[in-house]
Amino acid sequence: MPKRKEFFANKLLFFSLLLCFVNQDLNALPQEEKLELNIQGATLIEVLTEIKKKTNYTFLYNVDDIKNVKGLYLNGAPKSIKEILNECLIINKLTYEIRGHLIIIKPIQNPSKSDLNSIQNFKNLKGNITDSNGVGLPGVSVLVKGTNFGTSSDINGNYFISYQDTSNVYLVFSFIGLKTKEVCADKKQKLNVVLELSDEKLQEVVVTTGFQKIDRRLFTGSASKLIHKNIELKGLPNVSRYLQAQVAGVQVDNISGTFGTAPVVRIRGSASVNGSNKPLWVVDGVVLEDIVELTNDALTSGNLSTVLSSGLAGLNPNDIESYQILKDASATALYGARAMNGVVVITTKKGKAGRPSVSYFSSLSIKKKPSYSQFDILKSDEEMRVYEELYEKDWIDISTAASASHHGALSKMFYLISNNELNWGTDGGLNYEYLSKYANSNTDWFDVLFRNSISQQHSLSITSGSDYSRFYTSIGFYNDNGQTVSDNVKNYTASLKGEFDLSERFKLGFQLSGNIRDQRLPGSKDRKFEPITGIYERNFDINPFNYAIYTSRSIRPYNDDGSLEYFRSDYAPFNILYELNHNYVNIDVKDLLFQGDLKYDITSELKITSKFQGRWVNTLREQKIHETSNQAEAYRADNPLFVNNNVYLFDDPKSPEKDPYTVLPQGGFFNTTKNSLTSYFMRNIIEWKPVYNQHIINLLVGQEVRYTDRSENYNEGWGYLYEKGGIVVSDPNFLRYLESRNLNYFYKTDNRYRFFGAFISGAYSYKGKYILNTTFRYDGDNRQGKLVKSRYLPTWNVSAAWNLHGEKFMEKFQFIDLLKIKATYGLSGDNGAGASTAMVLRGIEPPRPTADDRETVLYIESLANNDLTWEKLYELNLGIELGLFDNRLFADFEYYRRYSKDLLGFVTTSGVGGISQKYGNIGEMRINGFEATLNSVNINAGKFSWHTNFTFSYNKDKITKYADEPRIADAVQALGTNLKGYSAGSLFSIPFAGLDGNGVPQFYGPNGELIQKINLQKRLDILKYIKYEGPTSPRGFGGLRNTFNYGNLSLSIGIHYRYGNKIRLEDAYSSRYNDHSSLPAGLRNRWKNSGDETITNIPAILSRQLSDQLNDAGLNPYQLYNKSDVRVADGGFIRLKNVNVDFRLPQQWLRNTFINSANVKFQAYNLALLYSDSKLNGIDPEYFQSGGISLPMARTYTFSVNLNF
Amino acid sequence: MRYSILLLIFSFLFTVGCDSFLDDNPDDRQEIKTVEDVAELVASAYHQATFLFVEWMTDNVGPIENNAQKEYMTEAYLWDPIDSYESQESSTFFWEQAYYAIAHTNEGLSVIDKVEGDDNLRKAIKGEALIARAYSHFLLVNVFAKHYNLKTSNNDLGIPFSDEVEDELFKKYTRLSVQEVYDLIERDIKDGLKLLSDDYFAGSKKYHFTREAAYAFAARFYLFKQEYDKCKFYCDKILGSGSANPAYVRDLNQIYQGTSFSSMASKFSSPDELSNILLIRKESFYARANYGYRSDADKFTEIFSNNIQKEFDNRDQRWNLGTYAVFSPKYDELFQYTTSNTGYPYFIQTELRGEEVILNRMECMIMEGNYTKALDDYHVLAEKRYESGGILVLDSIKKFYSKEDAKEAMISFLIDERRKEFLDEGLRWFDIKRFALSVQHTTLNEESFHLAANDNKTAVQIPQKAITNGITPNPR
Known about the structure:
The structure holds 2 protein chains of 2 kinds. Chain A contains 22 helices and 59 strands.
């Protein structure tokens, strides 16, 4: 026998009577059953334990009576229980009595009266101990007050106790971290007890990892739980935005406010340099797949697909119960190779037993339109003075205006003069009379294109059930009339859940939910990367927000008589209001999900759970480009003055003598894109949770499989006549036009994703004080290629926690209610999506002018890479949780060191292998971070209370290895670059050295000399030319929430802040400008006359001749100016995020109604930027300006009502 | 018992289908399964970059005041490393595209014996891959290394020779000597010629290495290697062993008919033109003569007017794009759109052509002292270049060049003829290297620069990104 004496000795002091307990449903074994015990020199307690293990008997004894009985020998011969007991007890002056399953052991000598009494008057009591959420609590100590009789609960929280039947018997239920409770037994047969957390601020009894629910006390990882109703932002349909500023370490950037777009969410910063860095979203235990998978770049692209990417748009916020954010390697361990970027687990509401309970929610939100006061843009009269200068400096004149692709007021004037529709001004100069109406127009494009939109949200849910089945149903409706004149959305959600207890042991759950979306957005083309200039271009961008801030305010939407006024854009007449009405996109989303859950308790300790899910999503995008829209007209703009410049015309290679001509003589476009997702998922888990007294063990083994297919189907319809009932007129040359440009009018792509994982996890806890946890997982992903070493990744994790407040020596610190320290070390990963071990071949038809020589060929897209592996993250996490002063103050501090390895990235190689730009594992990064959460109850005086919640996060990353050498051009761009020794995405600048005598910018060269030229392609020694600005992602961020309650009224104020990042300002300045784009207000202070260089940094507008001279000399000062240090702003801000006022109607008001409870709430969201860098001129530092369909988050006021029947 | 059954079921679930389940390809990538697939792969083994930046290093060009003379063009003009630009017409782009083409041959060769298909096709494609691999290496070594020279080539830095598939992220490459590179190219040419067959190419076949194209390449290779008998052997395979087949000289009178530059240039590079032996599509801006250092009217006069024939040369076509640059219709720029209004211009380049084969054989004859035969070859060309046929005798050539030595006179004559024929095609640069000529360049602000014969700068500097990744730079 192993040495267990000391172990027991301790416990014996605690409980003089130990009652062991086994499943009562089993029948007793025949009394004559023979046991073969071979015991050498054991204590009596060990012998009894052995007997207990092998039979179904329970022993009841006073520990003091038997603790000294030692040195027992049994030779292993088969003996009955009675024989063994006689042998062991008699000589030690003990006797026994068998009552059913119970064997009572007592001394022979001097049998005390009370003991005999107690044995004769024993009452049995059983019951269940749960937390406030109804989850069984294991290991809770149950003691008869005033005695040493006691027991502890099993893994499901069941207990069984026999006690001396006298009057006023109180049972004491206790466990560390829980409030001790005393209950009068009062001759009851069954007594169920609910224990509350002693630390109410924590409110986290159970941590839901998506795989299992773990008792918070047994949890060693770093995780934060948020209750939906505490953080919800009514009127915002996307739940991911709610997490902003709520949890330390979780950063949410609202890059766009368009419905359907997901904010960028980062948990503990970026673990990888180029990977997605997106956390896993897990809904009811299953990872939520994106409908369209987007790369990091694409997420901020403003492309149409961004409104489809996130599946979260299909969740009705009112269905959500809670969020659990899993941050460190221990918390996310079961997600293994996909967990590197953290996990957000969303738990939705479930049905509850009882009569039907109805809940109705309704909200009305008003989004305020933006105004020019937020932006620093020249007014129209100031613009006109710049135009005069452009005219004087030969940039705009009658000849350039006639052939220009875009017209503003001045070009329009010249055009009318050249057509003899307008006269020159006096002395043959500008016609100031004509121009004055534009100079005075001062168009407010926000007024023209935006409106104070109203959106509504309604949700109705019913829950009902019996002891054996429970249901939850809900329907939701969101309707937004649109912030601009060209967008709106209707979103419908429905969900039905049922849970069925087929037997005590076998439980089934089903869930069916669906989402239908009907959205309209302004017409938008995807942006494309232009490899020659290295910038993104988007043709025909009519994003209302971009239009408003980038269009000259001297352009007018209406003529004097109120009709629409047209200017020229892309060689064709253009009016934004007309265009938005005749060029738009309809988006349809249909999302259906079925989920099944199966639980089977083989015994109370051994369980099998299975989860399966099927999800089917179809989305359709239809872009309708009307035949009279500017986009369609641009394809037939063939005025002889610009016929050779208009790229949308067909320059027929077969008729080189002929001018380019149109291939769209009639009609517009009808473009459709279909995206579909079919996904199947299954997970099986076996869980074993034995409890030996106060040893809690939790062992979990499982496996999961995912099968996901995505496809995209695009079709471009040319020559569609909307006015004529949709007839199609095709030009015979249209195919030749596409062919000459290597364009296609349709395509289809398929993506297949197969994933397999197996895992094993073990947790051990003694008395809930000491916890040890370890997990091992093995994952495989088909996207990693076909080599075994690339395809599979084993991940692991070890963690421990110590609840110090349970220790004796802490008793003198009465003010400490909770003190827990924890540590984790482990490996998680992320797959190298986008990289492939195998060589990737694609087919293409290289363009050749002679039809006979056309052939399809295969080309290498990327070479094989046998070195490819997953991105890996090794993380050490240390944490302290502290509850003080009767839990008036709760604090959680976490410190982590992360080491990411095998990070993916593009690397430039020598090119000799065939591909000079390769994608593979090239980097390593170290991140140190710190997070703090403070919750406090500042005042709690009767009806009035004041709570504060503060979060702070800081992290600093450093690239320690990076195989790629950036060019100067990469380092100075808005997203920054990756360079060894610096943070990922570090921003650099060209050092500005003031303006020269002509108002042209100059810069400091490597040796401090003044220069006006830097080759941005340079790869060698680039740090000599540029200076470091800082990281582009924030170092620190967090939030502060204050809640004041007075009776039924509550007021909550939320603040969000971040700091430590730099923003590259837009390229605003140039040696020349035009008359159709808005102009930066900085131009007011531009260099005008010699000598101005001492007082201003804003470069001059050059004459055409001077500009040509600069070009001829190969100088690029204006390009460098936009990338210089004067064009960098600080990205830090403090934002008044929300103010909520919540009023719960007093119960007496509702007494005579059918309403059980009612709430009304007023909420203002995105109220004000309290601080941001003045260089940003009011532009929201969170918003990423990318055009397309993106819009900044609006200021929103919401009024909502919540009723329960 | 119950447990063990359940455990059995679970362990079954754990093991079943795991690996084969993950064998699905994640997207629509293609895999090579047959010899036909390899043929499609090898069809991409023709490099899409021009080496025309070397034209800016020759004495054919000068500064054009009204041209956009970008920095990288000036770098080329002054024989500096071309570092400021890495796209079309840069040494970097040429380097990358040549090795990209080579990677297709290596991949094709590595799998061709393992896939199913017709064995004759297999042989032919293997041959094509070998010749294509040799050709790209040949151009690389002649651009980035000094010219082949029996005395120094064992020590001169060549280029990395790539004949294996790269299947690791970072692979180390070192430069072989020029001699080693030439030896490996010769190996590939010999092996390739044993296998090559024209039977499997479709259309005009001009976009692939036909046997004829391989002969033309081999002829140039041995000419550069100064093995004249072998060069002549391959020239004969094309031109016939007697007098040269006149079909291999394009009739410029015909081609330069009409008024449109574009139609002339497209006729010049047409696959229907017999004298075009190998055509390759090039992504290039070179056809835009309002860029860069170009020939002007004075240069044309220097090259064409002072000719020994004393009559009009058909090649003297003086077109311009509104600047003073002057050029002949050789490149018809077409446009491949990558976005709706931007993309890459490209043209079809006559990579190997009959006139070169004739001039190569003529050179062999001169080197062997057979001036009559050399002139015979010349006359086949001259007939379609000069209005009256351009018959010349050795004495008039000696007189024209004021050289007593027949060989010297003939060589000077040959170099001039080549310069005229291959203007704007880059071959002048290789002649400058081969015949050890020197070049004088003057910039717009009258600064003079001189490139001595056999200067180290005749080996174009290795691209910046290759140097930063471990390739030895050329000495300067």
